[in-house]
Specification:
This is Gamma-glutamylaminecyclotransferase. By secondary structure, the protein is α+β, with helices and mostly antiparallel strands. The protein has a single domain, classed as Roll (Hypothetical upf0131 protein ytfp). About 15% of the residues lie in helices and about 30% in strands. The protein contains three helices and seven strands. The strands form two sheets. It has a five-stranded mixed β-barrel. The chain has a two-stranded antiparallel sheet with strand order 3-4. β3 and β4 form a beta hairpin. The model has no long low-confidence stretch (mean pLDDT about 95).
Length: about 160
């Protein structure tokens, strides 16, 4: 099992969460909420209003999201879904646990020195330079005040 931190459309209540609970794609178990230890720019970009965490450590905000444990099948699905390694790259990042909901709290304690876990995150270093000038967010919501609703793949 691997730990994955999701900050965009795969979070609960967001347009692609359905994939996280589709066991035909693999197993994903919600563990809790967290935020990046380092600051990153989280932008909404492109004609489909897709959230991207730009891999520019030290710039932007501590990005909020959810921590999951996933099996190999789900990790492979997520790699394909996220267009890894072209659109996004899966990298290890330090995530601060904000709220732990998993029943096995001991697991978090073993892996979380000072409440920090290493999780895979889909961020991007392959983005158009103008994206750096877009507004930065700390918590993505497809229906947020930004007015940039995500366009589902089946609607493109």
């Amino acid at each position: 099992m691997a730990r994955v931190f999701v900050y965009g459309t795969l979070k609960r209540g967001q347009p692609n969460y359905k994939h996280m609970i589709n066991t035909a794609k693999g197993l994903a178990k919600f563990q809790g909420r967290g935020r990046t230890v380092e600051k990153y720019p989280l932008v909404i970009a492109g004609k489909y209003n897709i959230p991207y965490m730009l891999n520019i450590p030290g710039t932007g905000h501590h990005v909020a999201g959810e921590i999951y444990t996933v099996d190999d099948q789900m990790l492979q699905f997520l790699d394909e879904f996220e267009g890894c390694p072209d659109a996004y790259q899966r990298t290890l990042m330090r995530i601060e646990v904000v709220e732990w909901e998993a029943k096995d709290g001991a697991d978090a304690a073993r892996g979380a020195a000072d409440g920090v876990l290493e999780c895979f995150v889909y961020s991007t270093a392959t983005y158009p330079p103008e994206w750096v000038g877009l507004p930065y967010y700390d918590n993505y919501d497809s229906l947020g005040k930004h007015g940039l609703s995500y366009v589902l793949r089946e609607s493109r």
